[in-house]
Protein 1
Amino acid sequence: MTKGYKSLNSFFSKSNFIGSYIDFQQIPNFNLPEICFLGRSNVGKSSLINQLTKNKKLAKTSKTPGRTQSINLFSINDKIMFVDLPGYGFAKFSENLKNQLYKSIEEYINKRSELKQILLLIDGKVGMKQGDFETISFLSQVDVPFIIILTKIDKCSRKILDENYNKISEHLKNSSKKTFEIYATSSSSNEGIAELQKNIYKFIKNDF
């Protein structure tokens, strides 16, 4: 483990839960850059947040899809905020609840001036589903940059991972965004976590 990696871990480990908000309008303004985590239900948002911060209890994880139905905020070293958005695409949600969740997500992304980057999580084994295609189409039209995070890569073969990576890469070429990045991560094996920490840390260094 390098000194730089230890320093990143030390920085991100100083974290705490701020609050859970049903309505976008309820979220206080902390005057800090915000990084949001977005993806299908059960894609591993909470697990990724916990691995980035080296705190297994920071974000509540569950094997039951659809548990995150509010906007959850976490302070990282009092320098940056992690924002865990509701998961989308859970089939057992009522249409009314689905519409509420999508409205909550869209309002936050469209109106939150502190938002600096969106992390769109996609299961490395499952690949892209219809909800992901629709989300990328939406994100391609907003001003905030987004990157793709392939999760749970320890649970799939290299062949499947490469296939899904290439499919996503090809699809993103049609996006209106000029550049894009794809990170492959595992909250279990720690693969790709240091690279993602570096990506997020630049928003503090750049003094946004």
Protein 2
Amino acid sequence: MDVDLSKFLDCVNHDLLMSKLALKIQDKALLALIGRYLRTTVMIKGRFQRTAEGSLLSPLLSNILLDNLDKELESRGHQMAPENRKTI
């Protein structure tokens, strides 16, 4: 199975992500800080804009959204990385 998640990271929905994070994180101040990072403006074609999707944190936090998919694929016998990979 070959899955390309590169575009997924650019379109992580902030509301969905925050609701999933709230299930795992109890600290309201930390959730507020993450929310502020997600709502930070970005420069697109020379103009600052707010986005409802994607952010600098999306690649890191998207793992929370992908956790259920990962577990489902593993339960079906799929591996997300080869077992024979070298560790340092």
Protein 3
Amino acid sequence: MKVLVDTSIWSLALRKKTLAPDEKRIVDEFKELIYELRVVVIGPVLQELLSGISDINKFKSLKNKLSSFETMKIGRKEYEMAAEISKICRRNGIQGSHIDFLIVSFAINNNIKIFTTDKDFSYYKKIIKKINLHEVRKDFK
């Protein structure tokens, strides 16, 4: 199954020099997903990643590296569903970002798991049962 990798994972892998043991396991899992050709990128995550780079040379380098990953197209149904999910979550006392809800709707509509360190997604999952979160495999070394 394909995995939509959230900005939090990319940032951990690309920016952090020293990793705690749990963070290392997450980055190793991410690398394994890349090796398995299971990583999916969408435009809003790509934009978040590139927007966080101020140095022009690092920006160009990251842009070049990210071009190796196909950017999946987001359609009208994902945007509409993201709005519905936002309303459902708000009615249940859970706030979230527009991009988070777009990630959720895209993943649900395309039967894709979400890999993130953002705890908000576990709150969304309590309300939106169809969310499928990817976890670091226990047997993964």
Protein 4
Amino acid sequence: MIQTLGGTPVKEKSLAEYAKELDVARLKTQADVLDFAAGLEKGAVNAYLGIIPAFSDRQWAKLAGQLATDEREHFTVLTQALGRTLPAPLGFGA
């Protein structure tokens, strides 16, 4: 899809490269893993929301919005599992 839109996909890395880049060795407890995952989900929400204005095709913008919603649900579950308070509904994309 990226190529269809005129872009170049990033090169796939090995699992070891991803593990090193993400510093997964620091994940020692369940809370560490949940916190790490919540951070990834929050980043995904913001990335999807941030790209919406760049789409001239409304269907791509709609898809990005749907994906952001899905990632927000993941973030919500992880945040609740950590016993944290959820941010305000409009606390994303800023």
